[in-house]
């Protein structure tokens, strides 16, 4: 065994079906009585239903969360939360809503109860990415880690197939980078392989029957495992690329992860293939990068940057921005190799390790 350090986080996780009914108990367990429910405009009805169920424990709803956590939205929500004298936040939705809750918690120290409805995994991390003036900045702070996460598999039955797939691949990306990151440790590596296995089994079933409860439950469990990996250890090239493409080119978050994943994985696999063996075994392939490409194709995921809104003339600037800041990666990634990787992802070429 190589030397390692392992840090755990104080967070309560409730997982199951019908667990939404326990939100009131969770608020009271934390000693609170004045919750504000957060969501995106698209999930305002879900937020309204939660608010209604909570009755007097809820003092208001803010349904304005947006992708990449714009600071202007946070400031508007903050004004409402302050005016309502809220004592905790209930975030129902994907990473965008969780991000808004975290951004408010950073500024107020309010406790958060998160009800995730995608597989993005933000609820399991002390990480917050915010955007202002076209730039995305990411920080790690214990203040933003949600106190309670309530996973209710029923809420994912209606998650659209495309978002199920891209969000599931987003989750797998967290686990893959956790396997080779410099601060990897044996506990998180086990969880990473298990998360990839669970999603690898579940997603092909979800696309055939989105209401398959067992598959939905496995997928959400896999998302929790992968999100926990993201929260526990550092990431590398894959996340750096997606951070730049999302923050500076406004590409959609989970789709970007889906397109980049096979390419970034193959790039690193030539150097850390042994560390990636558990992931390859988890999805029953010999070579992980090409295997992920085939899995994405089978799942009907977007396969090219071109189809998710990237312009070819932006690739040079993207490569410049990606290598602009020093970040750790198991295989050194210079401007030339990053530009080549972006080109392969732009046109959707199947990666090769040879
Ligand atoms: P999202 O939260 O932006 O959701 C996309 C859309 O799908 C939204 O309109 C949302 O309301 C809707 N939606 C969500 N769940 C649904 C459901 N069950 N049924 C129907 N519609 C549903 O997407 P996402 O991929 O979950 O999150 C992306 C955001 O999360 C990005 O801003 C990203 O930076 C952030 N993120 C942060 C972390 C972190 O640790 N800080 C980790 C992962 C993602």
Give structural notes.
The protein has 354 residues and is α/β, with parallel strands linked by helices. It is 53% helix and 12% strand. The strands form two sheets. A six-stranded parallel sheet has the order 1-8-5-4-2-3, with helices on both faces. The protein has a two-stranded antiparallel ribbon with strand order 6-7. β4 (88-93), α4 (95-108) and β5 form a beta-alpha-beta unit. α8 (237-249) runs antiparallel to α9 (253-282) and α8 packs across α11. The mean pLDDT is 97. The structure holds nicotinamide-adenine-dinucleotide. Nicotinamide-adenine-dinucleotide binds at residues 40, 42-43, 67-69, 93-97, 99, 117-118, 120-122, 125, 127-129, 155-156, 158-160, 163, 167, 230, 253-254.
Keywords:
single chain; 354 residues; alpha/beta; six-stranded parallel beta sheet; two-stranded antiparallel ribbon; 53% helix; binds nicotinamide-adenine-dinucleotide
């Amino acid at each position: 065994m190589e030397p390692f350090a392992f840090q755990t986080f104080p967070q309560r996780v409730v997982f199951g079906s019908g667990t939404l009914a326990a939100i009131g108990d969770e608020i009271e367990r934390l000693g609170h009585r004045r919750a504000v429910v957060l969501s995106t405009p698209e999930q305002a009805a879900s937020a309204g239903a939660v608010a209604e169920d909570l009755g007097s424990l809820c003092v208001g709803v803010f349904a304005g969360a947006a992708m990449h956590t714009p600071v202007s939205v946070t400031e508007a929500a903050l004004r409402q939360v302050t005016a309502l004298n809220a004592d905790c936040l209930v975030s129902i939705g994907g990473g965008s809503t969780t991000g808004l809750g975290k951004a408010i918690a950073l500024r107020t120290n309010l406790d958060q109860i998160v009800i995730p409805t995608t597989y993005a995994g933000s609820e399991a991390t002390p990480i917050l990415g915010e955007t202002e003036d076209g730039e995305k900045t990411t920080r790690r702070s214990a203040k933003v880690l949600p106190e309670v996460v309530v996973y209710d598999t029923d809420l994912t039955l209606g998650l659209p197939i495309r978002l199920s797939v891209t969000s599931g691949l987003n989750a797998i990306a967290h686990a893959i980078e956790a396997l080779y990151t410099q601060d990897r440790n044996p506990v998180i590596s086990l969880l990473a392989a298990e998360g990839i296995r669970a999603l690898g089994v579940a997603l092909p079933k979800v696309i055939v029957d989105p209401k398959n409860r067992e598959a939905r439950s496995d997928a959400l469990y896999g998302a929790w495992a992968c999100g926990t990996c993201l929260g526990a250890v550092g990431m590398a090239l894959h996340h750096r690329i997606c951070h730049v493409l999302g923050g500076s080119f406004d590409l959609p978050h989970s789709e970007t992860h889906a397109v980049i994943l096979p390419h970034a994985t193959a790039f690193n696999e030539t150097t850390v293939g042994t560390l990636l063996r558990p992931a390859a075994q988890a999805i029953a392939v010999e070579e992980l990068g090409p295997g992920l490409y085939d899995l994405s194709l089978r799942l009907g995921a977007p396969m090219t940057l071109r189809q998710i809104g990237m312009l070819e003339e932006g690739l040079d600037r993207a490569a410049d921005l990606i290598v602009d800041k020093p970040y750790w990666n198991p295989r050194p990634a210079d401007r030339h190799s990053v530009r080549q990787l972006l080109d392969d992802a732009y046109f959707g070429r199947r990666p090769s390790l040879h």
